[in-house]
TrEMBL record:
Recorded GO CC terms: plasma membrane
Record InterPro entries: 2Fe-2S_ferredoxin-like_sf (IPR036010), 2Fe-2S_ferredoxin-type (IPR001041), A/G_cyclase (IPR001054), Adenylyl/Guanylyl_Cyclase_3/4 (IPR050697), Beta-grasp_dom_sf (IPR012675), Globin (IPR000971), Globin-like_sf (IPR009050), Globin/Proto (IPR012292)
Gene3D superfamilies (UniProt xref): 3.10.20.30, Globins (1.10.490.10), Nucleotide cyclase (3.30.70.1230)
Keywords: Cell membrane, Heme, Iron, Membrane, Metal-binding, Oxygen transport, Transport
Name by which UniProt lists this protein: Guanylate cyclase
A Pfam family: Fer2
Subcellular location as annotated: Cell membrane
Family that this chain belongs to: Belongs to the globin family.
Lineage, top ranks: Bacteria, Pseudomonadati, Bacteroidota, Flavobacteriia, Flavobacteriales
UniProt GO BP: cAMP biosynthetic process; intracellular signal transduction
Membrane topology type: Multi-pass membrane protein
């Protein structure tokens, strides 16, 4: 029997021995190559490393001050802990509670009041898809259900990638809310607009690749509005649901409805326009209308796209494609690294397949975290510091950067474009230089 305590990860049924008692449960996951989301890099702020203690409560330190604050405000029961704040003295069995980056947004709902709804400033996106009638009348219900599922997935993803919450799917409509747990107006509006443009790419790709055999072309209309709406849990006392109510919601829906008449795809209101630097966006027509139920005119603006390269949008639209076969991607990447710098091979002590999955998991996580830059930076600090312990030096970074960019360029295939590569180069240069900066601070 080992003299060191054991952590059992219940859902993957894996045991690991925790040899460093000064480390946290999160440190133990990382050093054992167990994917464990930790967006803020272990600073006890993002809550993404949360775990449920299934057994061995008495073998963990009491909640830290940071944890107490979070647990109180989010009404956690005593079994929920932050892995980055937990040290163990004996065996424990745990369950990781956040599995994928896309689940992180759901955590925002914990900040929504259980009692009386609260007024919060949010950007609201309504997306309606046209072209379903042909689909439902000409294909089997099995095909329709399959396509609907694909449609909900690809349209939901851009909302999640941009720090939004998927509020509702109603028939052929998807509603996203941005800024549920706060944030600056310009960021929430820009996030919503980026999600809209991401949805446009997603539908184009769905039409071009997956729907070709069905002889169906989906078209979409999006309306975005910004305003103060009531947010809370509403409904029967025994069945309350997250709800957003107020005029800004109805206005967003009506703006969306104008697309058909105006022959446009994305329309935003004046209040969204006021939310960000307009010189970064390419506009089409603008029209003044009196929306149903209003007694005043509203001007709506057609959006064509961002001017120049929006790094996040480019990364988001290529991520799925790049990581479609993640083991192959990682394999290709490590071969390139070891080809350029054979001596780096000896730094990798553990299972390379698991290491490859951690790398791709991390790349995906970074793209998601870019919509929460305050956490991304903290995560990169931890990553930079831990790489010093792995024996990584400053000279290794350009090698990895080149190998990653070459792997991306090769994997992109038909999708390759100078704009896309420039976005990946900018993002990865930023990431590696942040990691290097934190690594240098440790080495000094
Ligand atoms: C884009 C920059 C990089 C990213 C995103 C990245 C990501 C990761 C991740 C997620 C891990 C898992 C452990 C942890 O979270 O601490 C890891 C471990 C590791 N990385 Fe990196 N890394 C990067 C750059 C580099 C560079 C420049 C090298 C040098 C060759 C390197 C070598 C290693 C080694 C040796 C390990 C530990 C593997 C083991 O224990 O067997 N990484 N990296
Ligand atoms: S709270 Fe633990 S990693 Fe962010």
């Amino acid at each position: 029997m080992s003299k060191f305590p054991r952590i059992t990860y219940s859902s993957i049924n894996q045991d690991v021995i925790c040899e460093d008692l000064t480390g946290t449960i999160l440190d133990c996951s990382i050093s054992n190559q167990i994917p464990h989301i930790h967006e803020c890099g272990g600073h006890g702020m993002c809550t993404t490393c949360r775990i449920r203690i299934l057994d061995g409560h008495g073998n963990i330190n009491p909640r830290t001050f940071k944890e107490k604050e979070i647990a109180r405000s989010r009404k956690w029961d005593p079994s929920i802990r932050l892995a980055c704040q937990c040290h163990i003295q004996g065996n424990v069995t745990i369950q990781r509670l956040v599995w994928t980056s896309s689940e992180i947004n759901k955590l925002q709902l914990e900040t929504v009041p259980e009692g009386n709804p609260e007024e919060r400033a949010v950007a609201i996106l309504f997306c309606d898809i046209r072209g379903f009638t042909k689909l439902t009348t000409e294909h089997s219900s099995f095909d329709v259900a399959h396509i609907l599922n694909r449609f909900y997935t690809v349209l939901g993803e851009p909302i999640l990638l941009n720090n939004g919450i998927i509020y509702q799917y109603v028939g052929d409509e998807v509603i996203g809310i941005f800024g549920v747990s706060g944030g600056l107006r310009d960021k929430n509006c820009r996030d919503a607009l980026r999600a809209a443009l991401g949805m446009q790419y997603a539908v184009e790709r769905l039409n071009r690749i997956e729907l070709v055999d069905f002889d169906v072309r989906l078209r979409m209309g999006i309306g975005i509005n910004f305003g103060r709406a009531y947010i809370g849990h509403l409904g029967h006392p025994k069945h309350k649901q997250f709800a957003v109510v107020g005029d800004p919601i109805n206005t967003a829906s009506r703006i969306q409805g104008l697309n058909k008449k105006l022959g446009t795809s994305i329309l935003i209101s004046q209040s969204v326009l006021a939310g960000f630097a307009t010189d970064t966006v390419e506009f089409g027509k603008d029209v003044s209308v009196t929306l149903d139920g209003h007694d005043h005119e509203t001007t709506v603006y057609e959006v064509i796209g961002f001017k120049g390269v929006d790094v996040q949008l480019e990364l988001q639209r290529s991520l799925d494609y790049l990581l479609e076969n993640e083991d192959e991607f990682a394999d290709r990447f490590y071969s390139k690294v070891f080809e350029i710098a054979p001596e780096a091979r000896s730094l990798f002590k553990k299972n390379m397949l698991a290491q490859g999955r951690l790398l791709t998991h991390m790349l995906g996580g970074i793209v998601y975290s870019m919509s929460r830059p305050e956490y991304l930076n903290m995560g990169l600090k931890l990553l930079g510091e831990s790489h010093v312990k792995y024996g990584v030096t400053e000279e290794h970074y350009p090698v990895v950067l080149k190998a990653l960019l070459d792997t991306i360029a090769e994997t992109l295939g038909d999708m390759y474009s100078g704009k896309l590569m420039k976005a990946w180069e900018d993002a990865l240069t930023l990431i590696t230089s942040e990691m290097k900066k934190y690594a240098a601070a440790v080495s000094d």
